[in-house]
Amino acid sequence: MSSSRKTYFELSTHSAAQYIIFLAIIIGSSFLLFRFVGVPLMEEFFHRLLRANAIYDGSTAYYFIAHDAKPEIISTNIYTQWAIVDLHPDNPNKIEAKYLFNPSLSLFPLIFNLSIVFAALITGLLPKSIGLLRQKIYRELVNVLDNIAVKLYGEHTDRELEEIVDNILVNDVRRLHDYAHTIDMPYSDLESVRAALLWQNSMGLTTLLKLPGAIKFYMRHYFTIQYSNTILGLVYIGAAALIIIIGIRGLKFIPGTEPSIILFALGLEFILLITYAVMVMYTKQDDDKSNDKGGGIAANADYTAVPSGIKGADDVENLLRMFVSRPKK
């Protein structure tokens, strides 16, 4: 009997250290991206496009929420309160803020999601004992190899699994096509398995260079299947939030001089749509799915299942037309 089933279930359990390291990388990356990328870029944005300066050094500024309103005295800080002022104020001793800007709120969707990507890449390079993504890729590789072995041998031994790995790694492209036909598996799937095996056997800088292939394997064989409906649901939630916030802005409940919440909603929907687009790009084609049989380690978690959420692409397109269509004259 093969030990792959035992290995699969062992790899399905993650340690606290893996989650702590993953979270620490997200927090650290978020701070570094905000402080050394986000802040300079937003300063340049205000300077170039609005012809204004961003004040966040702790000084105070006068802010008029409306032309006929009494001024408020606001204290600036780098994280939540920027005063956007004229480049050449009439009275340098009395700074008047044209806009109030909350960089943490506005940049949160972009920075947080970039930090998740960095955390995934880094934990894909760390040793399996502390690398969250690395263990997840190993787990799915064991699962797919076991599925192949079940198709060929039924109950199988570790030696037979090693023969499958050797066949995948040693064969050239032509023979790999023939082997894909033998095991009744789409060539594109087998090619992604080969990329993951090459990454698994690599060391040093080669591990970094082959990591994209391993991530493609994980996305194709697990992530797009398990989380397609979740991602699609989040896209709708983001669109709903954007509609509400823009509607409230249209009713003048959000001042035009405080655009942070609008930028947050736009950034959130942008990131969710990018995530959905990436998921669609990594999803198996319909003709690939029709050739797969399933089976293997986890019968209730067949890695060849059709991700029903992808079928909602037309609904997403129709939803987005609301934001780009022009009213008839």
Give a structural overview.
There is one protein chain. The chain is mainly alpha-helical and 329 residues long. The protein is 63% helix and 7% strand. It has twelve helices and six strands. Helix 4 packs across helix 8.
The helix fraction, in percent, is 55-70%
Counting helices, strands and paired strands, the structural category is mainly alpha
Order of helices and strands: HHEEEEEEHHHHHHHHHH
Q: Output mean pLDDT.
A: 87
Give the terminus-to-terminus CA distance. 73 Å
Stretches with pLDDT under 50, minimum 5 residues:
289-296, 298-310
Order of adjacent strands in the largest pleated sheet: 1-4-6
Shape: elongated
**Number of E-state strands:** 6
Count of DSSP-assigned helices: 12
Radius of gyration: 26 Å
- Beta-strand residue fraction: 5-15%
Major sheet: size, sense and barrel closure?
A: 3 strands, antiparallel
Secondary-structure map with pairings?
Blueprint: H1 4-11, H2 16-49, E1 52-55, E2 60-63, E3 72-75, E4 82-86, E5 96-97, E6 99-101, H3 103-125, H4 132-153, H5 158-170, H6 173-182, H7 187-200, H8 205-226, H9 228-250, H10 260-282, H11 286-289, H12 313-324
